[in-house]
Design a protein that fits this description.
binds iron/sulfur cluster, binds flavin-adenine dinucleotide, two-stranded antiparallel sheet, DNA Cyclobutane Dipyrimidine Photolyase, subunit A, domain 3, 50% helix, 23 helices, Rossmann fold, mainly alpha, Serine Threonine Protein Phosphatase 5, Tetratricopeptide repeat, 7 strands
Length: 511
């Protein structure tokens, strides 16, 4: 008698798990097991994602499925418009397990608490094993130990440990160049006449064209411009984008990291977060590449260090914080801000040039760089008292690189200070003066950045003081804000009254 074949395992691969050696694939056998990949409405619709973001993820998924097939895997790929599409990942797993007679199901832990929780519920009645996602440089257990062992677990301390742990930019046990952090060299405003390299763009192939048509048909009312679509969608594309960045932009990345220039959305930024976040690039490889460029002498230390810090420092720290603090983190609202998100976050129709420029860029590219996110759209929302959860949902929807584990702490913690200082020691609040120094936006604005109050004054100027005045009970004791409150206290009473009145008048226009 021939022995019956063992039942195949079902290997679940999510849209941000497009790494050929991801944990769930490592436990499987291409000759026998089935890979499940599914485009489902529950994932596209929980916030109204940007059209380019949906197209990027679906096209990258379809290309990854092709790669797996070439490596002898059997892939059960469920397209969004397939008649049999069950609509959610958990129901697709149940369907595929029954259809293929799978005994065990393996998946790599999802990057969002919402989905991880859904999978844990499923595991109660199916033989589903959730494997650790080891594509990060610091695992959750190590981060948890570090986090709980400190009174003030700040990113800079974590970063130094990560430098030692990864041996990146180290000379023995000392940081290369004698300093851990070269950020003070990295805050140059844009010089007139400065030119910027173009990012690496990719032409859509037949698979991407099909996806673009699908997105056009299925998401006609979603935010964002779909075409031209030029993101890379394969491992090779992502590698080419990284090579391009290291060669043409990384040398100046550090100097102009915080600059903002109208008509130049990308400056010297890498544009790789979307590739890192779906698994097309590996964070360690990216850092090794940047360090090699420094050691070869083609990139200065302040640029290489600044770039590597973002990845082994901020990116890992943000992820660690997310898993330590969820699920309650999403509801933090230390200032009790309750105003709805102004409609212009979706239309760009506002007279504030800085917001108009950044929101239009978001609409067209599904991208703005860090300072635009932090100091323009984020800063305004915080000063205007917008509900942090509404701000979070906007960021999660509109950027191609937005996945909750990385977006939420950046938005709610770093940009809104809604976590009361867990992530940052003081709010990133700025008046028009900062935007005027770091950008060329104010020249085209209908408001005057030099005027502090009155109908033509830059609204950020009085909103800034109104924010600190309103939130004195929460922020007044912060030693890093002593100077801010001292300046406010020295202001003439009549000016304070005008600031409060102007802010009230302006905020009324938002609703
Ligand atoms: P570069 O400026 O060239 O930096 C290089 C890389 O460093 C990035 O690709 C990214 O992987 C990493 N990095 C830099 N800063 C951070 C950071 N603060 N947190 C995590 N990684 C970082 N990043 C996301 O990947 N997804 C998001 O949804 C996201 N939402 C954000 C929301 C707000 C309000 C803010 C202030 C920041 C957010 N960031 C997010 C962080 C950062 O803005 C983006 O990673 C960066 O702009 C991506 O563009 P880039 O690849 O050109 O990055
Ligand atoms: Fe923004 Fe104020 Fe400058 Fe206008 S003047 S672009 S509102 S900072």
């Amino acid at each position: 008698m021939t022995k019956p074949l063992p039942s195949p395992n079902l290997i679940v691969i999510l849209g941000d798990q497009l790494s050929p050696d991801i944990a769930a694939l490592r436990v499987g056998d291409p000759q026998q097991d089935i890979v499940l990949m599914a485009e489902v409405r529950s994932e596209t619709d929980y916030v109204p994602h940007h059209k380019k973001k949906i197209a990027f993820i679906f096209s990258a998924m379809r290309h990854f499925a092709e790669t797996l097939r070439q490596r002898s895997w059997t892939v059960d790929y469920v397209a969004l418009d397939a008649k049999s599409n069950c609509g959610s990942l958990t129901s697709e797993i149940e369907r595929a397990a029954a259809e293929h007679g799978c005994g065990r199901i393996y998946c790599t832990e999802p990057g969002e608490w919402r989905l991880r929780n859904a999978f844990e519920q499923l595991a109660k009645h199916m033989t589903l094993e959730i494997l650790e996602d080891d594509r990060f440089l610091c695992n959750q257990e190590d981060f948890g130990t570090w986090w709980k062992g400190r009174r003030q677990p700040r990113m800079e301390h974590f970063y130094r440990e990560m430098r030692r742990k990864t041996d990146l930019l180290m000379d023995g046990d000392k940081p290369v160049g004698g300093r851990w952090n070269f950020d003070s060299d990295n805050r140059k405003p844009p010089k007139p006449g400065l030119t910027f390299p173009e990012p690496q763009r990719f032409n859509p192939d037949a698979i991407t064209h099909n996806v673009l048509e699908l997105v056009d048909n299925c998401f006609p009312h979603n935010f964002g411009r779909l075409k031209p679509f030029w993101f890379g969608v394969t491992q090779q594309d992502a590698q080419a984008a990284l090579d391009h960045f290291v060669t043409v932009a990384l040398p100046d990345f550090g100097d102009y990291q915080d600059a903002m220039v109208q008509h130049s959305p990308f400056l010297f930024h890498a544009l790789i977060s979307l590739y890192l976040n779906v698994g097309l690039l590996d964070p360690r490889d990216v850092c090794v590449r940047a360090e090699a460029a420094y050691r070869e002498g083609s990139v200065p230390l302040n640029a290489a260090e600044g770039f590597i810090r973002q990845i082994i420092g901020w990116r890992e720290y943000i992820r660690g914080l997310y898993w330590q603090e969820m699920p309650s983190y999403v509801d933090r609202n230390i200032f009790c801000h309750t105003s709805p998100l102004p409609t212009f976050y979706w239309t760009g129709e506002t007279e504030l040039a800085c917001l108009n420029i950044c929101i239009k860029q978001t609409h067209d590219e599904a991208y703005t760089h860090h300072i635009q996110r932090l100091m323009v759209t984020g800063n305004f929302a915080m000063l205007a008292g917008i509900e942090p959860k509404a701000v979070h949902e906007w960021y999660l929807a509109v950027y191609a690189d937005a996945f909750e584990w990385v977006e939420l702490p950046n938005t709610l913690g770093m940009s809104q200070h809604a976590d009361g200082g867990l992530l940052g020691s003081k709010p990133y609040a700025a008046s028009g003066n900062y935007i005027n120094r770091m950008s060329d936006y104010c020249g085209s604005c209908r408001y005057n950045v030099k005027e502090k109050t009155g109908p033509n004054a830059c609204p950020l100027n009085y909103l800034y003081w109104d924010f600190f005045d309103r939130n004195r009970d929460t922020l007044g004791g912060n030693p890093r804000l002593t100077q801010v409150y001292r300046t406010w206290d020295r202001m003439e009473s009549i000016r304070k009254v005008t600031v409060r009145e102007d802010a009230k008048r302006f905020l009324r226009t938002l609703s």
